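Budget justification, computational time. The allocation requested in the original proposal was used primarily to generate structure tokens for proteins on the priority list. As evidence of use, we reproduce two of the resulting records. The first is shown immediately below.
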Amino acid sequence: MPRKPITPDNAYLRLATLCARCEQAEGDLRKKLRDWGIASSDTDAIISRLKQERYLDNERYARAYCRDKLRFNGWGRIKIAFMLKGKGIEQEFIDAALAQINEEQYVNILNEALEAKARSLKDKEPQQARASLLRFAASRGFESNLIFPAVSRLTHYNNDD
């Protein structure tokens, strides 16, 4: 049985409810509207109304996304920026969100992730362990100027044991 078509008013109400629960990216909402079969002129009107009524704010979304991905997923700036770009967030909002990161907390998150990974690599040769740690930190999206010193400190410390 085919689904009952969603009217633009119903689509607006659904998205307003969704945005009230948690921050959403404009690109994700546009995709939902497209999936629901809403015309592009109606989509623009719905998005405009959501922005006007402050349900939708890409800058606020970028800040929340950045904070959450750093804290809960342990991602670095590079991966966060890449993912936000993929969601169609403007570069100025991405830069502002990344600027809010506390540098000391950021480095601590990197070090804790590397220490946890190093514990799982105890049986590996030192060079293999070092390469694994470098790949791991890079895959998390941390910058190489932070990765190399952190890995060197960690592998040097472990070699002293």
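The second record produced under the same allocation is shown here.
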Amino acid sequence: MINRNFLLLLTGQFVSQIGDKFHMIALSFWVLKTTGSSAKMGAVLAASLIPSLILGFISGTFIDRYNRKNIIIGTDVIRGVIIAVFAALFYFEAMNFYVILIMQILLSINAAFFDPAIPSVIPQIVDEKDLTAANSKHQFINGFSTIAGAFIGGIFISLFGYLWVFIVNAVSFLLSAFFECFIQIPQMAKGVSINEKSSIFIDMKQGYQYIFSKRILVVLLFIVLIIHFFVGSIEVFMPVIADSISSHGIRNLGFFQASLGLGTIIMAVVLSFGNISGKEKSTLFGSIFLIGLIYVLASFFKGSQTTMMVLFLAMLFLFGCCIIAASISFKTLLQKSIDNRFAGRVFAVAGSIGNASIPGAMIVYGLLLEKYEFQGVLMISGLILMLLSVLSFMLYKEKNYGQASKVISKSVS
């Protein structure tokens, strides 16, 4: 059941993410068109990710220490103002590559605080039994806005030009902040996790002590690394496989991306209305095992161009389903397993680990696929992933959660 507070949060997220997708598409094309340099385009995209990745290891302390609602609203307002300045500079033809880099860095810094705050707040405004459904709906908004934003954004640019895209994005962040103003978030008891008289560094230290003292959290953070690593791997596999099937590689890649996206959206919808509450652990590890199995089976695909296209489209659809099922289950387990007073620190670290593993996977698989056939790489990757899923499942001892919590609370106090 969607309550008023969660609906306001989803509405704000949907509006801002559509606008943000508009912005990134317009920015990438504009940089490539004006500079003619794919390296500079890559630098802009890196500037959008790296600051958030680095700051994620410390931003969670601020999320737990200060009012989360104010952080969410404030970062949306700041991003709206940054994009508005961006649009003004574009209008007066004062825009250049270095200004773009600075503004993308500022936007990424804000994201380091905004992104972990959202999953930290959800357990405060949603009943525990509804967490899986809430995370599924949030994931659906993310997936739908990414696909719809990319599709509509391209049309919007061609019809109205770059300036109006930047204006729309600025308005979308401010509108998102407006919706978030009406969210009512219950105050947390500060307890021992945050002491206003202590320093930021002490709170940060307590956060890492909390994370590494709980085997459940360590296993779950390892899982998020695995999930994001193989998300990165599929981004490298898709163009290689698309090109190997026929001479229409670009067209094939478009179909592959669509099939993957469709799988993520459908699974998010299914889990939004289905009831897997209490089954998140089996769903998480089962989904990761299935991804490994899908990779192994895909290594044996053979046949005509049509047959290969159908098989790989089905593979990518199932991959998308499994990734979303694993992602939603992971987030829900994390929310249920931690003291919410530490949620900002835990989710910020998880986000940084995940964000770091994707480019790492792209580099590793890029090198592997230069030397080896994709079938062999798929086979080995699948077997490793299946093994890791089994080992992680064995390490995850949910029954020890209650005892571990008591030990940690005493150590932190």
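A brief technical remark on that second record: The domain at 207-404 is CATH 1.20.1250.20 (Growth Hormone; Chain: A;).
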